[in-house]
């Protein structure tokens, strides 16, 4: 999958970012054990092997969200994408993976925009996500996840989307991860987790 | 019917008439015959009565007929009405039928349309079918292709397997080679050992050689050393010889040495002095330089001093020239302040003067206008006077001596007085005007002087302002303080800004947002909400199950045993349980059947034994058998046997009963002597039988 683009368009950038989110969310779900590991299958992407879910309902939900997100990325109306992990028993938010988006609407075709460099950056981000497992606290109880999108206030949303709260963590520790940019969209990643009392 | 009635009526009338005419004729004929008059009268009366009756009858029949006619009409009307109703109903039916017909037609049309659609759908389906068939064919082709590929792959696999076999063979060959080489290695190692031993021998020899070599070198060295020593000694001898010669020169040398030492000391001292002197010169040189510099500075300072003195002189001169008592800058500043104050005052004065000047101008103009007006008035008055004079002269000319002359004269006088007054007033106004003009002129002069002074002061002020250090120093210091304060505030604000930015960053990391500009959205059907719902449902289900189980347990504890009421859980039984249940049921059935069969057989056997042997054998207690004979006299007569020894051995012993006491003889004979229980039993049977038959 090595495309050598002379430049990158807004549509191409939106697709790249959406693809990254799709694989990134799958990695998070696999690493944090939200869904059992046997429901994931190995695929190759960005020259590394990643896990992708085979659960039909989950796939459907993800494609819905990601396709809508792609549209909004094209319009540059989305500010953040957040993966919220909640404990089912206590209804507390345990982890929050936040991806900030900065959109440069005044884009111009740069001289040397290489797909390989963007891929390298995305690879490092995903490796970092995998590495965070070492310091994040264990999720012992059954958890579920939700995807929140921060958009402009006046954006018209389709019927299936409803407004929700930001679902912030009470007493959180935050860690900033790497970012990557396609010169049109810049994605900053960070993870916030609930401070455990033992530490 | 009417015609018929009419005809009947007419016929009756005709008959009546005919009858009337008949009897009339008869009457006429029989008029003369009075003899027949009573009978004829009776007969005529009778006829009349009959005719009346007939009339009445015909009337009644007429009435009947009319009634019938009316009835017929009524029935006719009714029939007509009914017919009309029927017609209506039939028309309605017709309408209904028409409507139904229309509806049916519509239905038919709709059905036709549906049929068409169905046909179209059918066609489409047929086309789809064809397309699917085509797809199927393509898929078959693809499958074939894939099969071919598979076969190729299989071929590849077989080839690869052959290759692997070949490689295995190669490996084996290699291994054999390896083993041969190992053997070679061993041989070589043995050789190596041999070589090593040789090497050791050689090394020993070499060491010996080396030692001998070293010994030889040592000896050589010794030789060399000895030779050297010899050479030295020869040299020494030579030296000794020279020394001897030199010894002669020793005292001279000693003297020289002394001298040289003294010189040395002297030179050292001089050297020290030299160094001291050098330092002194250095210091002096530096001093000289400094002094020269100082001299230069002094010259410069003197020049400056002269300049400053000149300036000071100039300042003092200024002071003297300006007529002010200036010795120090404070005086100058004081003077400046005074000048400024004076300036201010002068300005004020100027302002007031200007105002007064403007006022005076206004006054002047007003006065001018007044003067003009007065002149005009004067002119008018003069004209009036002339007029009056002319009038008076005219009066005078007209009247020589009149009574009006004193009055006129009086009037003239009055007019002249008026005129004089006016003239005086005029002169006064003129004087006032001249005064005002003079004042205006003086004011103008004053203003010009003031402006000149002001300009002079301004020039002075400008020249003084440069040397006015105090005021500016104060300003500068105040400005510096302000700057410092602002700098401190700026730093504080910068720190605050940094803190706020960090806080904002932290909040942004935590996920905060500005509700005015952004909103947070998510899908309604998201995994968390679905999971929560499922969780809640599970919890609910588990709670219900728990409740049911608790109830069941309570019932079981209360009732005991498995109750088959509605508290039993409808647990879907697994297949094993069902199988086991079936097995259990079958086993129980078998058991039951076996029991029945056993019972039956036992019963049969017992009855057979009873019948054949004549004894009913009951097991009363474990190992005890009670035999009751068929011929027993009483029901209680029984023999008791006990089984002794191990079970199944068959050894029995007779126990004492009431009945057995009556059979002691038999017991002794058969049991004690013959030791045979069957014989005893048969003997007892015979005995009893004989007893029964006898009795």
List keywords for this structure.
heterodimer; A: 199 residues; alpha+beta; Cell Cycle, Spindle Assembly Checkpoint Protein, Chain A; 5-stranded antiparallel sheet; two-stranded antiparallel ribbon; 3 helices; globular; disordered N terminus; B: 695 residues; mainly alpha; 5 strands; 4% strand; HORMA_dom (chain A)
Overview of this protein structure:
The complex is a heterodimer of chains A (199) and B (695). Chain A has 199 residues and is an alpha+beta fold. Chain A has a single domain, classed as Cell Cycle, Spindle Assembly Checkpoint Protein, Chain A. In chain A, 30% of the residues lie in helices and 33% in strands. Chain A contains three helices and eight strands; from the N terminus they run αββαββαββββ. Chain A has a five-stranded antiparallel beta sheet, covered by helices on one side. Chain A has a two-stranded antiparallel sheet with strand order 1-2. Chain A is globular. By secondary structure, chain B is mostly helical. In chain B, helix 1 (2-29) runs antiparallel to helix 2 (37-248), helix 4 packs antiparallel against helix 5 and helix 10 packs antiparallel against helix 11. Chain B is built from eleven helices and five strands, in the order H-H-H-H-H-H-E-H-H-E-E-E-E-H-H-H. Classes of the chains: A alpha+beta (199), B mainly alpha (695). At the A-B interface, helix 2, strand 3, strand 4, strand 5 and strand 6 of A face helix 6, strand 1 and helix 7 of B.
């Amino acid at each position: 999958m090595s495309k050598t683009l002379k430049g990158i368009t807004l549509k191409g950038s939106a697709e790249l970012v959406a693809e990254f989110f799709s694989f990134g969310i799958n990695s998070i779900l696999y690493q944090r054990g939200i869904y059992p590991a046997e429901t994931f299958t190995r695929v190759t992407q960005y020259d590394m092997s990643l896990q992708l879910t085979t659960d039909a309902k989950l796939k459907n939900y993800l494609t819905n969200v990601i396709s809508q997100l792609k549209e909004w990325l094209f319009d540059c109306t989305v500010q953040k994408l957040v993966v919220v992990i909640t404990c089912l028993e206590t209804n507390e938010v345990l982890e929050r993976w936040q991806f900030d988006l900065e959109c440069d609407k005044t884009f111009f075709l740069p001289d040397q925009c290489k797909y390989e460099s963007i891929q390298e950056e995305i690879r490092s981000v995903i490796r970092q996500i995998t590495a965070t497992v070492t310091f994040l606290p264990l999720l012992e109880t059954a958890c579920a996840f939700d995807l929140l999108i921060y958009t402009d206030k006046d954006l018209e949303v389709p019927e299936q989307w409803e407004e929700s709260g930001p679902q912030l963590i009470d007493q959180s520790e935050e860690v900033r991860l790497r970012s990557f940019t396609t010169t049109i969209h810049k994605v900053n990643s960070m993870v916030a987790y609930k401070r455990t009392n033992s530490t | 019917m009417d015609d018929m009635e009419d005809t009947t009526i007419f016929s009756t009338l005709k008959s009546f008439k005919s009858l009337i005419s008949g009897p009339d004729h008869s009457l006429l004929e029989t008029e003369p015959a009075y003899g027949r008059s009573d009978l004829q009268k009776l007969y005529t009366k009778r006829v009349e009565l009959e005719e009346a009756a007939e009339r009445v009858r015909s009337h009644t029949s007429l009435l009947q007929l009319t009634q019938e006619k009316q009835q017929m009409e009524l029935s006719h009307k009714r029939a007509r009405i009914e017919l009309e109703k029927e017609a209506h109903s039939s028309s309605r039916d017709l309408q209904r039928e028409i409507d139904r017909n229309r509806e049916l037609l519509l239905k038919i049309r709709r059905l036709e349309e549906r049929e068409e659609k169905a046909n179209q759908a059918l066609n489409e389906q047929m086309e789809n079918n064809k397309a699917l068939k085509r797809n199927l064919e393509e898929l078959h082709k693809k499958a074939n292709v894939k099969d071919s590929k598979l076969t190729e792959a299989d071929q590849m696999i077989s080839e690869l397997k052959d290759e692997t076999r070949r490689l295995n063979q190669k490996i084996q060959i290699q291994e054999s080679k390896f083993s041969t080489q190992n053997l070679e290695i061993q041989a070589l190692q043995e050789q190596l050992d041999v070589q090593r031993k040789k090497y050791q021998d050689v090394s020993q020899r070499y060491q010996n050689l080396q030692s001998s070599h070293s010994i030889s070198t040592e000896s050589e060295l010794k030789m060399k050393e000895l030779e050297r020593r010899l050479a030295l000694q020869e040299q020494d001898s030579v030296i000794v010889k020279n020394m001897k010669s030199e010894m002669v020169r020793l005292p001279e040398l000693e003297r020289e040495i002394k001298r040289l030492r003294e010189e040395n000391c002297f030179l050292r001292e001089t050297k020290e002095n030299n160094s001291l002197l050098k330092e002194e010169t250095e210091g002096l040189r530096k001093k000289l330089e400094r002094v020269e510099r100082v001299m230069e500075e002094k010259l410069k300072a003197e020049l400056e001093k002269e300049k400053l003195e000149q300036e000071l002189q100039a300042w003092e001169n200024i002071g003297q020239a300006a007529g002010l008592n200036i010795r120090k800058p404070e005086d100058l500043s004081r003077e400046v302040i005074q000048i400024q104050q004076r300036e201010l005052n002068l300005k004020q004065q100027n302002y007031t003067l200007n105002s007064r000047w403007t006022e005076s101008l206004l006054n002047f103009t007003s006065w001018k206008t007044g003067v003009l007006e007065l002149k005009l008035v004067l002119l008018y008055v003069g004209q009036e006077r002339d007029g009056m004079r002319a009038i008076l002269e005219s009066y005078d000319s007209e009247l020589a001596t009149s009574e009006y002359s004193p009055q006129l004269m009086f009037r003239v006088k009055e007019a002249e007085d008026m005129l004089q007054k006016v003239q005086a007033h005029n002169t006064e106004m003129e004087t006032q005007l001249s005064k005002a003009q003079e004042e205006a002129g003086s004011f103008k002069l004053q203003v010009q002087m003031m402006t000149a002074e002001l300009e002079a002061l301004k020039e002075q002020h400008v020249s003084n302002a440069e040397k006015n250090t105090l005021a500016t120093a104060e300003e500068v210091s105040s400005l510096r303080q302000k700057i410092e304060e602002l700098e401190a505030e700026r730093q504080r604000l910068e720190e605050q800004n940094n803190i706020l930015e960090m806080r904002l960053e932290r909040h942004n990391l935590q996920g905060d947002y500005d509700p005015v500009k952004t909103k947070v959205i998510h899908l309604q059907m998201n995994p968390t909400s679905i999971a929560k719902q499922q969780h809640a449902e599970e919890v609910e289900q588990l709670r219900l199950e728990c409740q049911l189980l608790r109830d069941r347990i309570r019932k079981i504890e209360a009732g005991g045993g498995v109750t088959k009421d509605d508290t039993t859980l409808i647990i879907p039984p697994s297949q094993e349980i069902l199988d086991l249940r079936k097995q259990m049921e079958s086993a129980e059935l078998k058991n039951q059947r076996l029991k029945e069969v056993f019972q039956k057989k036992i019963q049969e056997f017992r009855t057979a034994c009873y019948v054949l042997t004549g004894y009913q054998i009951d097991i009363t207690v474990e190992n005890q058998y009670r035999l009751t004979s068929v011929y027993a006299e009483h029901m209680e007569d029984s023999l008791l046997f006990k089984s002794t020894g191990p079970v199944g051995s068959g050894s029995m012993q007779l126990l004492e009963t009431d009945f057995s006491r009556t059979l002691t003889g038999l017991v002794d004979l058969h049991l004690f002597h013959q030791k045979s229980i069957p014989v005893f039993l048969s003997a007892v049977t015979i005995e009893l039988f004989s007893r029964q038959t006898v009795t």
